[in-house]
Structures are given as structure tokens and as C-alpha cells.
Specification:
With 268 residues, this protein is of the alpha+beta class. It is 16% helix and 36% strand. It has helices spanning 7-22, 241-267; strands spanning 28-30, 49-54, 65-71, 80-81, 87-89, 103-109, 116-121, 129-137, 141-142, 146-157, 162-163, 167-169, 174-177, 184-187, 200-204, 209-218, 226-237. The protein is globular and about 75 Å long. It binds calcium ion (3 copies).
Length: 268
């Protein structure tokens, strides 16, 4: 038997199994500073949404992540965008990073009780993703003008379940309240646009995540301009079941041949 499956080949096949089981296990950074880090969809008017697809993972065929920005329209209430936003730059707000990095910047005004719904979609990965984390910048407040509020933070899994963030961490100019699906981030004081004081980090450590959404509203009666930004997104693709099964079958076959070979040798 070893004539057909020498030790070196068996070792390679076991390594293939390992590769199959860990395929896609490497963390990916969706990086707004990369060449794909653009926003070309324009500004979704009230009641409309814009979706852009991204090829952020060179080890996975085709597009990997899509981001949708929806301008909600309940009671004919929605944000008006400052000219040119959303857009990707490293200057509107910076989250306190030095050197500055790019982020998807949002600047709006007017009545916005129903807010902007942002969806980060990973459905191009058959098994979904895990360990998703991203930081929002400039969640803050200017009393009588605006209160940035982030709510309805949730993920949908590849099997259709709704799961809550594992953690939501705020900074000096905002406060995180609630837990599970009731997490809310409210601005509590004014943050300088180039400071980290308005940062808030949202993390999902659950497996098989298909998409993540959050909603940005103005929790103040005022209707002044308000800004936030979505910085880079880290995530880890889940192994695709098909590749693991093939690898497992391959190695099972090799193990079976090896067993038969040993049995035959003992009989001789
Ligand atoms: Ca970056
Ligand atoms: Ca890709
Ligand atoms: Ca803000």
C-alpha cells in the first residue's frame, strides 16, 4: 500500500485536511484606505437606499462585503445629506487616529427621527463570518442641535437567527446603555472631529454572521448638522462546509487504504 501512498503523500493529504478545516479562518480587515475603499453610490434620498459591493478578500472569489445605507422614511421623516455625503475621506472626522485613516463619513441635517440604517452584508461567504468588529467615530452631542444615537444593533446569521452584539464600548463623549439587542449609544457631550472621544466599538463574536445592521438617529428635537463615520471592519470568514467535507473524505480514504495495507501486511 505504501507504494501507492507513501508517508510523504499521506502527510500532504493530512495537511490538505487541515487547510480545508481552517480555510477562511484568517482575519480580514475591510480597509477604507485600500484601493476598493470608495463610495460611489451617492446620497440616498428620503425613503431610498444605496448599496455598494466590495472585493475586500483576495482569497475569496468575487465580491465579499456589501454596505447598504438606507435613508428611512417613516412619517416622511428622513435625513438630508450635506452635499457629497456619504463619502470616504480621512479628514471629515478622524476618530483621533494619527496618521489619519479613511472612513465612510456621514454628514446630515434636518428632521431625522427615523434615521439612517446601515447594513454590512457578508452573504457572499457561504458559511458567513465571525469575530466582526468596527468602530464608529464622533458619536456625540451638541445640546439643542443634535444627539447622535446608535440603536437597533443586531446581526442576522446564515440560518436566519437574530443575534446581539457581544460588546459595545463607548468613549468620553458618549454613553452605552442597555445590553443584548437593546444596546443604545447616545452622545453625551461635544467631541472634536479629530478626537477619539466620540468613538464607539461594536463587536460580534458569534459564528455564521450573514449581516449586521445599526440605525443612526438624532435623539434631540434640534435639527442641526450632525456627523459620524464608519471606520475599518475586521471579520473572519467561516470555513466553507463543502471544502472541509471534501478534505475530510480525501483523508478518510487515505486512512482507510492505510488500514487495509497494514492488515494485508500482517496477513502475509
Ligand atoms: Ca484603514
Ligand atoms: Ca474577493
Ligand atoms: Ca457627531
Amino acid at each position: 500500500m505504501t507504494r501507492f501512498f507513501p508517508r510523504s503523500l499521506r502527510l500532504m493529504m493530512w495537511l490538505a485536511l487541515l487547510a480545508g478545516l481552517t480555510a477562511g479562518a484568517q482575519a480580514i480587515v475591510f480597509d477604507w484606505d485600500a484601493s476598493y475603499g470608495t463610495w460611489t453610490g451617492g446620497s440616498p434620498g428620503t425613503g431610498n437606499s444605496v448599496t455598494q459591493n466590495y472585493n475586500s478578500d483576495t482569497s475569496h472569489t468575487g465580491n465579499d462585503v456589501s454596505i447598504t445605507v438606507a435613508n428611512a422614511n417613516a412619517n416622511n421623516s428622513g435625513f438630508s445629506w450635506n452635499n457629497g455625503y456619504p463619502k470616504v475621506d480621512n479628514s471629515s472626522t478622524t476618530g483621533g487616529l494619527s496618521p489619519a485613516q479613511k472612513a465612510l463619513q456621514f454628514q446630515v441635517q434636518d428632521n431625522n427621527a427615523t434615521g439612517i440604517v446601515v447594513t454590512i452584508d457578508f452573504s457572499q461567504y457561504a458559511g458567513g463570518v465571525k469575530n466582526v468588529s468596527f468602530t464608529l467615530w464622533d458619536i456625540d452631542k451638541d445640546g439643542g442641535s443634535f444627539i447622535d444615537q446608535i440603536s437597533d444593533i443586531k446581526a442576522t446569521t446564515t440560518t436566519g437567527s437574530t443575534v446581539a452584539a457581544t460588546s459595545v464600548t463607548g468613549s468620553a463623549s458618549n454613553q452605552v446603555t442597555g445590553s443584548g439587542l437593546s444596546y443604545v449609544i447616545n452622545g453625551t457631550s461635544t467631541n472634536n472631529d479629530t478626537s477619539a472621544g466620540g468613538n464607539a466599538t461594536i463587536t460580534f463574536n458569534t459564528n455564521n454572521i450573514k449581516s449586521i445592521t445599526f440605525t443612526w438617529k438624532n435623539a434631540d428635537a434640534g435639527q442641526s448638522q450632525q456627523f459620524i463615520a464608519l471606520h475599518d471592519i475586521t471579520y473572519t470568514p467561516m470555513p466553507e462546509v463543502g471544502s472541509s467535507v471534501v478534505a475530510l473524505g480525501l483523508c478518510g480514504g487515505v486512512a482507510g487504504y492505510g488500514f487495509l495495507g497494514r492488515t494485508r501486511r500482517r496477513r502475509v
